[in-house]
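Worked Example 4.2. Consider the chain below.
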Amino acid sequence: MTVNVGMLDRIARVVVGIALIAFALGYIAPGTSWSWVGWIGVVPILTAIFSTCPAYSLLGISTK
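Applying the procedure from the previous section yields the following structure tokens:
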């Protein structure tokens, strides 16, 4: 796997991922029926941990 995610991009992905998971757990807008969408927040956190983004690879983008 080629590293293609820079430090600022990684920080942004972690922040967005945590916010989405907080939404899924009901800390943000509790009682909505769309809380399952928040579990998508796992994806940006994983891409930040591994410093690689499959979408960036397909598009030939690198923020590193």
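DSSP finds three helices and no strands in the chain. The chain has a mean pLDDT of 93. Compare this with Example 4.1 before moving on.
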